[in-house]
Design goal:
Order of helices and strands: EEEEEEEEEEE
Structural class: mainly beta
Largest sheet: 5 strands, antiparallel
Number of domains: 1
């Protein structure tokens, strides 16, 4: 059985906007979740900080039988920073994803960069999103919850202002529920 989130289709988005204290017309900076179509969350905040950290809580469950000792993409954890709301074509280059630890009590963790043909989104270049991979290592974890954090970071200069961006995903994984 795949991650239940796999049933969602298309582009979901979570929008976090920043505005620069140094520019009259500050750029918007957003983070989008590509989660096969449904809007999971839509949040907008206006901040003047050039060092921006935002946190999103994500819950995505797995089965124990089908996902035991199998690397499983946690589809609700795939995000990308963009400079225009709902537009993956405006992706910020040089993003990085990492997890807080390589292992949890019940699994091994890693990251993955998913790429899609830009033509699927009306873009001239390939589109990338960054997410987490969960490898269940304990079969006795039925009806338990696992937790970890992952971090999507990017650095970008827009309208002459440098931005350091960090998205913290507080991930909860109910197992076999």
């Amino acid at each position: 059985m795949k991650v239940k989130a796999f049933l969602l289709t298309g582009v979901a988005l979570c929008t976090l906007s920043l505005s620069s204290a140094f520019a009259k017309s500050a750029p918007d900076i957003h983070v989008m979740s590509v989660n096969r179509g449904a809007v999971v969350k839509s949040v907008m905040t206006h901040k003047t900080a050039t060092n921006q950290t935002s946190t999103i809580a994500v819950t995505t469950d797995i089965s124990t039988s089908a996902d035991y000792k199998k690397k499983t993409d946690l589809t609700k954890t795939y995000y990308a920073w963009v400079t225009q709301a709902s537009d993956l074509c405006a992706e910020i280059p040089k993003e990085k994803i990492k997890v807080s630890a390589k292992k949890t009590k019940y699994a091994s963790l890693s990251t993955h960069i998913a790429t899609y043909p830009g033509s699927d989104y009306g873009c001239s270049t390939t589109v990338s999103t960054y997410g987490d991979v969960y490898d269940l290592t304990t079969k006795t974890a039925v009806k338990k919850k696992d937790k970890f954090e992952s971090y999507l970071t990017a650095k970008v200069t827009l309208q002459g202002t440098k931005y350091d961006l960090k998205l913290v995903l507080d991930v909860t994984v109910p197992i076999g529920t």
